[in-house]
């Protein structure tokens, strides 16, 4: 495995006499090939020397749904190590930050894929990322399920302001982040939701969940389903296009028998209500892993001086 290439960090001085380090920084739009229509992730490529508190402060400052920090790996199988922060907390794994960070390290020449793949080390373990000219595809960590209690389903419906499909029992789906997942009547119902985010944050904290991901079927177009993901307890009201949320939805659909074929592939749409137009490519094998893929494009190249 070709591991991340170290880069010397430049130390400079602010006008007030304090020192700062110049760190290469990118913002990558994920799940789109067109800038400004996906979900941006801030990637700090030179994160050595930053502690967790500093990383959290930077993530609050960028105010994106996630900010990542690239570090040297601690495991020989990995190409690099990634720490992932929302404005409010650190996550063991997340989908669009994994793909966006992989795009960033390749583009910056920090890592060279071998055999068309990279291995990321993160809090959830080792994550495989397949690399092609057109897209990046991650293999989701093995999901774990907990069916919601009836009273919690009622609370979820009150938060959403809409009924959920109780024949496909809503569940907590743990893929690193823990998503409360439910199916709604259709894509239009999903798109017209106006959830109570303050109430959702309380609900998420009580269930030790990252957030809520809901979905409904489209009747036409290129996307099979519409997905929305809310994580106010982590400081993210609505995530524009969520990789782990989509992965949790895919695992849920498989577990609840909502996919027609033994091996299924479909495209999910997300982001319309927040001015985005993301597309997430999903594959689901009944006897194997879930994969989450999409395109990425860099929209900012710069230097972070902290």
CATH fourth-tier homologous superfamily of the largest domain:
Diaminopimelate Epimerase, Chain A, domain 1
| Percent of residues in helices | 10-25%
- Which fold does the CATH topology of the largest domain refer to? Diaminopimelate Epimerase, Chain A, domain 1
Question: What is the overall shape?
Answer: globular
Spatial gap, N to C terminus: 31 Å
Largest sheet: 19 strands, mixed
What is the helix/strand order? EEEHEEEHEEEEHEEHHEEEHEEEE
Key phrases:
6 helices; 21% helix; 38% strand; globular; 306 residues; 19-stranded mixed beta sheet; alpha+beta; Diaminopimelate Epimerase, Chain A, domain 1
Please explain how this structure is put together.
- The protein has 306 residues and is an alpha+beta fold.
- It folds into two domains: 10-139 and 295-305, Diaminopimelate Epimerase, Chain A, domain 1; 144-288, Diaminopimelate Epimerase, Chain A, domain 1, CATH 3.10.310.10.
- The protein contains six helices and 19 strands.
- The protein has a 19-stranded mixed β-sheet that branches.
- The mean pLDDT is 95.
């Amino acid at each position: 495995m070709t591991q991340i290439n170290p880069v010397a960090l430049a130390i400079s001085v602010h006008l007030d006499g304090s020192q700062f380090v110049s760190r290469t920084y990118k913002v990558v739009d994920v799940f789109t090939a067109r800038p400004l229509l996906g979900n941006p992730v801030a990637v700090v490529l030179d994160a050595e020397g930053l502690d967790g508190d500093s990383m959290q402060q930077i993530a609050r400052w960028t105010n994106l749904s996630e900010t990542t920090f690239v570090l040297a790996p601690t495991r020989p199988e990995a190409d690099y190590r990634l720490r992932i922060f929302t404005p409010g907390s650190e996550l063991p794994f997340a989908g669009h930050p994994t793909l966006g960070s992989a795009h960033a390290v390749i583009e910056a020449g920090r890592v060279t894929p071998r055999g068309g793949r990279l291995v990321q080390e993160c809090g959830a373990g080792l994550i495989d990322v397949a690399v092609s000219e057109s897209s990046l595809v991650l293999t989701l960590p093995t999901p774990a399920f907990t069916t919601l209690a009836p009273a919690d389903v009622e609370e979820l419906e009150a938060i959403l302001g809409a009924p959920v499909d109780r024949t496909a029992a809503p569940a907590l789906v743990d893929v690193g982040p823990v998503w409360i997942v439910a199916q709604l009547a259709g894509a239009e119902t999903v798109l017209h939701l106006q959830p109570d985010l303050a109430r959702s944050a309380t609900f998420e904290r009580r269930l030790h969940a990252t957030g809520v991901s809901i979905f409904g079927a489209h009747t036409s177009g290129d996307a099979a389903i519409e997905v929305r993901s809310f994580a106010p307890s982590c400081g993210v009201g609505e995530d524009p296009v969520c990789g782990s949320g989509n992965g949790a939805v895919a695992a849920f659909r498989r577990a609840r028998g909502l996919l027609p074929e033994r091996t299924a592939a479909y495209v999910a749409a997300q982001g319309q209500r927040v001015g985005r137009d993301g597309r997430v490519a999903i594959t689901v094998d009944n006897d194997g892993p879930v994969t989450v893929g999409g395109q990425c494009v860099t929209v900012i190249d710069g230097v972070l001086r902290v």
